[in-house]
Here is the input.
Amino acid sequence: MNPLEKALRLTEHPALRAGLFLASAASMLAALYLSLVWAPAAAGETEAYRIMYFHVPTAIMAYLGFFVVFAASVGYLWKRNLVFDALARVGAELGVLFCFLMLATGMIWGKQRWGAWWLWEPRLTTALILLVIYVGYLMLRNSVDNQAVRARYAAVFGIVGFIDVPIVHFAIKLWGNVMHPVVIKSASDAGMPPEMMLALRVSLLAFLLTFASLFLLRLRLEILASTASSRLSGETR
Amino acid sequence: MSYLVAAFGVIWLAVFAYVFAIDRKCEKLEKEIESAGKGPKAD
Here is the structure.
């Protein structure tokens, strides 16, 4: 058994995966009810404002995915353990998925709100750059055959690429723009009624559980691929 | 309302497509490992 298999045996428990999947499905149903039915209408907004309950959590999950890449990349450069490399790859893939969803839902909301699918304003532009950076990261990973070299290059890319995450988050503060709404102004000032805040929090929890569920599933694929390649190399030896 | 439906549709289509693709790949690899002679331990 290789080190990857040893360290990540957790993903081999079907009960854990099933439990996490059920918890994410149940919380997602609750989030759908709270955000689509229970949360009050927003003053001066159409019903499309409810996209916010899913757009904001997808953005936070994208940040989380890229943070996993950053932390695992630091871990790899420090320990030179390929487990960190596998974690970084999984984090990048999920980060790209949620970043795409953040942009897609944002564009749909923007079309309704601004009458245009896309505006070259700071938040959108930096978010698009973020997506391009991590698509590039995944392309780099696929273009290098040597495992150790690939892990080292990817770790450096993963650390440098993360610089764009705070830039996206603080884009409005940095450059100023009145077009993109600031949903949560600060920890003390939610900027919305408590009912809306509760619906948003439940939705955030649901997306967090979905992220965890997808993470375990994707990690399992990484382990199976590693097992298959070690068995095949054993056969050909 | 159509914008709301489109946004949810995009999210769920993408997530389900991703889960489906990963699940298929896992199944394929499990079969490869089993056919290599030493299947993964039953949980």
Remarks:
- The interface with chain A takes residues 1, 3-4, 6-8, 10-11, 14-15, 18-19, 22-23, 25-26, 29-30, 32-33, 36-38, 40-41, 43 of chain B (CB under 8 Å).
- The mean pLDDT of chain B is 83.
- The CA atoms of residues 26 and 32 of chain B lie 10 Å apart.
